[in-house]
Amino acid sequence: MLIYDSIIIGAGPAGIVAAIQLKRSGRDILIFEKDKVGGLLRNANLVENYVGVGDGMIGKDLVEVFEKKLKEQEINVLAEEVIDIKKDEVFEIKTNQNVYKSKTVIVATGTIPKKLDIAGVGDLEKEEKIFYEVKDIFDQKNIKKVIVIGGGDAGFDYSINLNNRGFEPEIVTRGDFSCLPLLLKRAKESGISMHKNQKIKEIKKHDEEIKVVTNKKSFNADAILVAIGREPSIPIEIEEQEGLYIVGDAKGGKHRQVHIATGDALNAAMDIVALY
Length: 276
Description:
Blueprint: E1 3-9, H1 13-24, E2 29-32, H2 59-72, E3 77-78, E4 82-87, E5 91-95, E6 99-107, E7 111-113, H3 121-126, E8 130-131, E9 145-149, H4 153-164, E10 168-172, H5 181-189, E11 193-195, E12 200-206, E13 209-214, E14 218-221, E15 223-226, E16 230-232, E17 244-246, H6 258-275
Parallel strand pairs: 1-2, 1-6, 2-3, 6-17, 8-15, 9-10, 9-15, 10-11
Antiparallel strand pairs: 4-5, 5-6, 7-16, 12-13, 13-14
C-alpha cells in the first residue's frame, strides 16, 4: 500500500492552503472533503478582510478562486468521510470507502454550528424549517421570510446575504447586537428588521409558518436560521501528536478568520516539509 507524505482532512481554506503548499513542495498528498469544497466561505456574504480580494468578494466566488488553485496544482479532492485514524509506525486513515496510510495528517475540519436548545426544535429540524447554514436556504422554493436568531457577525452577515437574494430576514437576539458596527450599519441601510433583548421562550409550528415566542412578542416566518455560535468539528476522537496537526478553526481558537486559518495551515505544512 502506498504511504502518502500527508493526508489532509477538510477542504476549506485551511485544508486547501496546506494541500497546495505540500504539493508545491513535492509531497505525495491526499485531501478529503465529505461535503463541498470551501467550508464556511460558502456562507459568507462578502469577504473584505482577506488581502488580495480588492474591495471584497462574495464567499462563493472566493471558493471558486481556491478551487482554481487546486486544479492548477492538479490536486483532486476525494469525496470521502474519515471515520477512524490510528497510528502504528505510520497513520492509518479509514474512510467510509477505503483505508489509506500516511506519514502525517492535517485535520482542517473547521466548525459546526451550535444547536438551538429549545423544546420542539428537533421536530422542526426534521421538517426542514430550522437551518444552521445560510447556504442551505438559498435553493429553497417555499421560503421567503426568515427569522435569524443571533446578533453577532454571523447573524448579521447571513441576514444581509439573505436580503440581497430576495429573502425577508428579521434578526432576533437575546441580548444586545454584538456584530461589527459596519454590519449593523449595512443591515439598517438594507431595512432589515432587528430586535434585541428578546429571550426565546417557545418555537412552534403555526399553520404553515413557524412562530417564535419571546419574553416580549412573537414573530412568524417560513423558516428559522440559527446563528448562535460555532464549535470545533473534530470527526473522531483524536489528539495532536507527532505527525498529526489540527489547524484553522478546528483548533477552537478565539478568532475565526480566513487569514488565521490559512496561516495556521501553512505553518503546519511547512513544518511537515521540514521534518518529513
